[in-house]
Amino acid sequence: MRLVDHLDKGFSLGADAPCLVCDGETWSYAEVRGLSFRISAALAGSGVVPGDKVAILSANDPLAFSCVFGISRAGAVWCPVNPRNEAAENRELLDLFECSVLIFTSAYAPLVCEIRDALPRLTTLVCLDAPVEGALRWDEFLARGEGTVVDRDADDDLAMIVGTGGTTGRPKGVMLTGANLEAMTALTLMSYPFSPRPVYLALAPLTHAAGVLCFPVLCHGGSLVVMRTPEVAAFLENVEQHRVTHTFLPPTLIYMVLDHPGLAGADLSSLQCFWYGAAPMSATRLTEALTRIGPVMAQLFGQTEAPMMISTMAPADHFHADGSVAHERLSSAGRPSPLVTVSIMGEPGTLLPTGERGEIVVRGSLVMRGYYRDEEATKEASAHGWHHTGDIGYLDEDGFLFIVDRAKDMVITGGFNVYSTEVEQALMAHPAVADCAVLGLPDEKWGERLTAVLQLKAGHKADLGEVKEFVKARLGSVKTPKQVEVWPDLPRSKVGKVLKTEIRASLLA
């Protein structure tokens, strides 16, 4: 199944139904589908053949997202480029992916001008919304395909290549096939509630999880409401105005929603499924969300290499049969999804029994083809016939998957293994803590000194000694941070994850 086939499925359910909505404008399925044919023909007129790589550099934008379908219809490979990356990183990714076309918005023209001379394979530049020297205007680009119809299959089912950073700092390109994304769509549709014609609100970047979650919505003929900027007040207004049924946010943004004064008066009754993922969520704040947002919270766990649906937890799974909150499950990542096999690996190649902790490994049609032009990394990630996630976790007796840490984030202090996620969950239960990071720092006595950096809720103060006692009462002395600091803000990645590498570097400086 090609990416554009999701759009065509929605078109078959109603050509005049709304497909894309943004800033008061609406594009029907017929309009978006027609545009996809024009883009496909323009790419062919620019020399693009099946298997060629076409990159998109844009913030959330309906026209830029429409280009995804034109790329797919041309048989080419979509390469989403994160607009928040530094210029050097994007240059390296575009070179690695061997992109021949770059479609971008004028906001990123300075970045494009900075890197394009170092990318000889990049033969066609297209700016969507303004004249830029050395780039085709949007109308000039479309004119290259006038009078032709191009609707091709990909040569080998490669649908997209997504950049991801590695532990070495060198970027890698994750190859995702049409079959991978079809599996993701199928798992989404079978794991979560969907009514006819869902309405999906995309606030998070369409270059990441928010983008691929659009495809199952399209299969139901649903509409996609695109937010150009991540504003919490506007998010709440959009849910109410458009009667949004589905949305996705990382935990950091959900915390902002919970802390926003407009939440109490917002009408969120249309929501069926509010996905959260991309980072661990505080069980305490999740409990709050189930009350204040509603019984619609839905977890997903995946990676770029196995997109979104390694394990799932539907809204109903957050509750017992009697309607009470299933607190013991809230710190889990749900159950392995139906088409994915999940195991826990200890010593290389050895699978562990229920309840024991080790690396989470997965198999199934969700798992990537491999890393683009990186056989060594591909071999390492797929050792012993399993995809290695790099996450440490365990499966409980009821089949729920618990992720206790990234393998590289485990702290060994005084000879004991301490998983930072467990300590972070305890800290997040403190009424003054908005977010936190736990890591190990070198220590002559302990080997590693368990260290916590806190970001407090607005208007709150915290006695650090009392915070330590709060954790000690819950986890014991071994898992209590020896060092606690308060920072006004925690450094974050482009998708809102706390950057422990930057915190560690600052603490060691």
TrEMBL record:
Signal peptide start and end residues: none
Domain called AMP-binding enzyme C-terminal: residue spans: 422-497
Pfam families found in the cross-reference section: AMP-binding, AMP-binding_C
Domain AMP-dependent synthetase/ligase per the UniProt entry, residue ranges: 16-372
Record-linked CDD domains: FACL_FadD13-like
InterPro entries per UniProt: AMP-bd_C, AMP-bd_C_sf, AMP-binding_CS, AMP-dep_synth/lig_dom, ANL_N_sf, ATP-dep_AMP-bd_enzyme
GO molecular function, a single term: ligase activity, forming carbon-sulfur bonds
Name of the protein: AMP-dependent acyl-CoA synthetase
